[in-house]
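Fold it.
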Amino acid sequence: MGIFRSRYYLVAKDAALEAPDPYRRIPLYDPRGLADRRDRKRRNRLSDHVEDLFDAACREGDSEAAAELLTVLENMQRRRHEMLKRDRRISDDQLAQAQEELARSRTVA
């Protein structure tokens, strides 16, 4: 048994070891921003462009413009629901996130 050693590594008793968070976002190595530009090109719908403008308005602290863009998004979503009444793929999640983001940006500003 002298040749075969234990297959476990010795760890100090006071070592603070934790399991990694399985839901953490793994950063993408993209120094030139190619993935962001590629993803932006895939978003060709008008609602995607309005969402991008809304995000930019929230980042810049222009809550008035963000509120107007949110109204536009709500109207677009309402019309989409009216046209495609039984389509289950339509979700209000993005609209709810936009409302929360606007409320957050108003409290910060």
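The chain has a mean pLDDT of 79.
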